[in-house]
Amino acid sequence: MMAMDRRQFLKIAGLSALLGLGGKTAFQWLAPGEAEATLQQAPMIAGKKWGMALDLNLLDEEIMSKCIQACHSYYNVPNIGNPKEELKWIWKETYEHSFPGQENEFLAEKFHGRHFLLLCNHCTNPPCCRACPTKATWKREDGIVMMDMHRCIGCRFCMAACPFGARSFNWGDPRLAPKALNPNFPTNPEMPTRSKGVVEKCQFCAERLAKGQMPACVEAANKIKPNAMVFGDLDVSDSNIRKLLRSRYSIRRKPELGTGPNVYYIL
Amino acid sequence: MLDKALKGSPTYWGWIVLLLAVVGAGFMTYLYQFQEGLKITGMSRDVSWGLYIGQLTYFVGVAASGVMVVLPYYLHDYKAFGRITILGEFLAIASIIMCGLFVMVDLGNLPRMLNIILYPNPTSILFYDMIVLNVYMLLNLVIGWNVLSAEKKGMSYPKWVKVLIYISIPWAFSIHTVTAFLYAGLPGRHYWLTAIMAARFLSSAFCSGPAILILLCFIVRKFTKFDPGKEQIRTLGSIVAYAMILNVFFFLLELFTAFYSQIPGHMHPFVYLFSGLEGHAKLVPWMWTAACFAVLSLLLLIVPASRRNENTLILACLSVFICTWIDKGLGLVIGGFIPNPFEKVFEYWPTLPEMVISVGIWGTGILVITVLYKITVSVKEEVAA
After folding, report:
1. What is the rounded distance in angstroms from the CA atom of residue A187 to the CA atom of residue A200?
2. What is the DSSP pairing of strand A50-55 with strand A229-233?
3. Which of A227, B45, B77, B372 could bridge to B90 as Cys pair (CB 3.0-4.6 Å)?
4. CB contact under 8 A, B121 and A133
5. Are A138 and A128 in contact (CB under 8 A)?
6. For the segment A252-261, what is each residue's pLDDT rounded down to a tens digit?
7. H runs (alpha helix) in A20-106
8. Distance (Å, rounded) from C-alpha B373 to C-alpha B216?
9. What's the confidence (pLDDT) of residue A9?
C-alpha cells in the first residue's frame, strides 16, 4: 500500500488552512481515512495534469456497471433508451472496439468477451478544444477538458474532432427522457440537467475535485476493490498514479494520433 | 434596380409563389425541429453531421465556382465571359445564402449563434470559415450590383470595384480550401484525413458549379430574350470537362492510397460506401449511381462532338450535378463517420422533416437566384433595346 507522504500531507494542511478548516476535519474531508488516502494524490485542487489508471485485472463487469451508474446518476445523465440519441459519459466496450487496430486473433483469453471502461481521455493536446468555434470546450490548467453547456452552440464540431467517441449530444430535451427508464430523474438535484442542443461529456468530476472528493467512478470502483481505478497528478513523479504506471504495463487508446490521452489501461 | 424584380409575367409570379410555398413548408418544418431538437433528423451520436452539413459543403463549392467565369474575364481578358460574369456572381450569392441557412438549421442552439463572434476561437476552422464565407458574399454582392448598375447606365464601373474583383478571385479559392480544412485536419476520421481534400473540393466545385451555371444559362435563354451566348456555354463546357477529369482523377488517387497500402482504417469508409461493411450498405446504390454518372459525364464531356452539342452537353451537366451531389453532399460526410471511432457501423439516413427543411433551403436559394437573374436579365434586355 502506498501511504500518504510528507509532501501530500503538507499540501492538505496548506489547503485546509486556506479553506479555514480544522486539522482533523480537513483530513477526513479532503483525504477521508488512511485507506482512501493511499489511492489519491490530495489535495484535489492543485493538480497540474490529472490522469487516471484503470487496472483491468481488478475491474470486473459488476464494478464497471457500478462506476457507470455512479457517474450517470451523479450528473443526471438520462437513459434515452435509443442508441441513436444515447448519452454517455463513461461506458463499457470490448477490447477490439476499445483499441481498434490492436486486435489480434491470439489475444490473451482473459480479454475475450470482456469489457473495458471508456471515458473522455482528457487529452494533453485535445483536438476537440482546437475545433470548438466558441471555446465552449477548453483545457484547464490542471489538464481537465471542460465543457460549458451554456456557451455551446451545438455545432458538433468537437464530436467530429474527437477520435475517442467521448462526446454526446442532446438530440432532444434530456429532461423529457422516458420516465419508465429514468424513474428518479433528475437523480441528483444538486447537479444541473442539460437543455437540448448542447454537447456534454465527462469532466473528470471537476466540481468533486474542488471539494476534495475523488471522481464518482473512481470512488465507486474503489469502494468495491481498492486501487481498481487510480486518479492522480501525472505531473508529480511520486504521485500514486505515477508509482502505479512505473510498476505496471499500461496502454492508451490511439496514442498514434498524438492527442496524448491521459487515461491509462493496466492489462 | 430592385423594382425589376416586381414586374414580371404570370409565369414568373406563379414560379415565385411556388417557391415561396416550398420555403414556407421548410420554415414550418424547421420550427418543429427548433421545438423538438435535432432528434427529428437521422443524425446520431455516431453520425453527428448529415445532410445539412453535406449540403453546406456542396454549396460552398458552387459559390466558389463563380470564379470560373470571373477569372478568365478579368485576368485573361476573355471578353466573351463579360456577358455572363454577373450570372456567376449571383449564383455565388444564392449559394452562400444557402450555406448560411444550412449551418443555421444544423445548430443545436441557434439563439447562441453569435457566440462564434462573441467568443471566437482562433484555432477553430469554423471561425475562419464563417469569416471567408461572409466576406465572399459581400464581395460578390458589391461587385455584382455595381457592375450591373454601370451596365444599366451605359457606363463602366468605378475603379475601386476592380480592386474588389481582384481580391475576390483568390478569395473564391480560399472559401473552399477553408471548408476542406474543416474536415481534413481531424485526427481519427480516415476518410477526411487526406492532404488532397482541398484539391478534391476545388476540382469538384469547378465542375459542379459551372455545370449548374450552364443549365441556368439554358433556362435563361428559354425563358427570356437574353441569350448568354453559344461561345460562352461552349467554353464553360470545356471548363466542366477539365475539372471533372481532375475530380475523378483525385478520387482515384484516394482509392490507390487506401487499397495499395491496405491500411484497414483507410479502406473501411470506401468499402462501406461502395460495397457495404458488416452487412450495412445503405449508401451503396447511391455511390454506384454517382460512379455511373461520373463515367457517363466523362464520356460526354471528353468526346468533342457531344461536348459541343447542346443537347448532350445538358445531359453531361446533369450527370456531373448528380454525381458530385451524391459524392460531396452525401457520401463525403457520412463516409467520415462510418465506421465510428470504435470501428462499429451505425448507419445514417435523412428523415422526411430533415429533407423538407433541406428542400426549403433549396427553395430559398432558387428564389434568390430567380430574383437576381430577373433583375439582371431585365437590365440586359433594356440595354439591348
Report:
1. 17
2. antiparallel
3. B372
4. yes
5. no
6. 999 999 999 9
7. 23-30, 33-37, 61-74, 95-98
8. 10
9. 47
